[in-house]
Amino acid sequence: MTLDKTSHLGYLLPFAGAALVLLLLDAATANLMSGSELDLGTSLNLPTPGYARYLALYMLYGSLAAGLIAVGLVRLVSTGGLERRLADAWRAADDRKWIVYASVFALLIPAALRTFLLQGAPLTDDESAYRYMAQLVASGRVYGDSPALKLFFDNRFMVNDGKVFAHFFIGWPALLAPGVWLGIPGFMNSIYSALTVPALFAVLRRLAGSGWAKGGTLLYLSSPMLMVTAATETSHTSCVAALAWFTLLVLRSRDADAPWWVHSAAATVFCVAFFIRPSSALGVGLPLLAWWLLGLRGRAAMRHFAAFAVPAVVLAALFLTVNKLQTGSYFEVAYQRAYTYAVENDFRFSLWPKEVDGGAFNELVFGDPRRALAITGAALARLNVTFLGWPCSLLFGLFAGRGRLRATLLLSCLCYLALHFYTNNVGIDTFAPMHFFELAWPALLLSVCGLERITRALAGLAGPPEGWRVRWLPAALACALVITSLIAYVPVRFAAIGKVAGNVALPFEALREAGMGPSVIFVQKPFIQYCKSAPTRGWVFVRPNNDPELTNDVLWANHLSIEKNQLLMRRFPDREGFVMAWDRDCRVVFIPLANLAPGALPDAPVSGIEEVGT
Length: 614
What we know:
Blueprint: H1 9-32, H2 49-77, H3 82-92, H4 95-117, H5 126-138, E1 144-145, E2 158-160, E3 163-166, H6 171-182, H7 188-208, H8 210-222, H9 224-230, H10 236-253, H11 260-276, H12 278-294, H13 301-327, H14 334-344, H15 369-386, H16 404-419, H17 440-459, H18 466-504, H19 506-514, E4 519-523, E5 554-558, H20 562-569, E6 576-582, E7 588-592
Parallel strand pairs: 4-5, 4-6
Antiparallel strand pairs: 1-3, 2-3, 6-7
Helix pairs in contact: 1-2, 2-18, 4-7, 4-8, 4-9, 5-6, 7-8, 7-9, 7-10, 7-17, 8-17, 10-11, 10-12, 11-12, 11-13, 12-16, 16-17, 17-18
């Protein structure tokens, strides 16, 4: 690696080679795969064919480009004492200021993505259900009252059996409720993303030192999966935030000078994570809970156990009480009630097709371990790229090394996979493998630990000056992978997501342009036609939920038939009725209901329409 220091060309060659490799990747993507038109949105497990072809190219050319960039960076910093100056500057950076700046970026990046990439549009039907529940919680309730002629207001992910509530757990809606009060629900995940950073930094500082903690925050900020998810209204970002603080509090609880309230705080944030996503909280948290329990020693053990148990019991009682209020049973959760309600409602406007009647509730499917193993493999394959946007996002975590905490984090990964082994699918593919999302938390910590351990191992292989070059290689490779992701992967993935978001935003843009007054808009299925983003599509299929009191200027309702729609309008005499439709040019039009004769549009393909209003 010795170069003539008078020759600047030698330093540029690796970067020039990387640029050429990335140009080859871009040419193949643009000319052989229709550019950024990835066929996302059609698979819940393996990557779709078009996306898989792109990944095959990216994993080859991206890995080669990252390797060349890493060599170039090592050569660059290993001259003229630059490596020492960089190391000194990195160590001298104030930890508190770093946390503040990183937290600000963790807030601003998702907020910018929501505003400019997503255009404020949802990427999943889940988000509308969460928003409805947040409005309920903000008003002090855990369910609303079913409106008259309720079939018009049945919706996916919702129970509407006299009570109206989403089939999701109450934790994320409770954390989303402040956004309802403030009028910024779409930006609450950005806030929880920012709140994750201090805990992330503090945990990594204990694991690998201050320098690597700074590097870990940069990996967090550069993760397209973590940042895009934080731009949505899904529950995963807040769950990661709660798990991050739980991890830190468990670490603090094992210190000799830990006060009693640390144990109470650890119990509280774990329960918050459980309220948001129970299986994810248990998957990541059970090994940490065991490690916390093993740390209880001495005279204060019972006092610390009691400090943990009191908030845990109170919040567990609250969890059961919410179940009782919503479903009528302490031990039946909203997910279960949603399925039994779908059966009772003849699967009308349901998440499940009628063909599953008599089958199992579909979040967990037991019976075929080979299928479960295949889904686990598909989840890891998708997470391996989507997590950090690298061709090998999970690679460094394999070298995390020994130590009780590192072993506990590895057990968290294994426990998570075990608890999700019979999950029915990996999850939507637009921006993340959603059912395995929280695995990113221990994976991020282990990745930084792996980088630190490899660096430490390489440092003793050679003395100066070669030793400096070798020691910089892991950090240079991580930087190179981030650069490669930002150049080659993120633009392609974000372009696809942006097309989907723009397509989903069309009805809302048309609504603003129409300047409607108080109205009821009847929607035929599907709510979104993905004609503007094809072959990529999203996971928004049904109309938005209304506010619990049906007081919004625009109310959305299911189209049943022209005659039945007119029957509903009698209950809203101060509003105009419209039917939403898509024309041949993929434009949204709102047809006045008064202009439509009976039979002008097909009736909704659901049972019981003739009984509505009788």
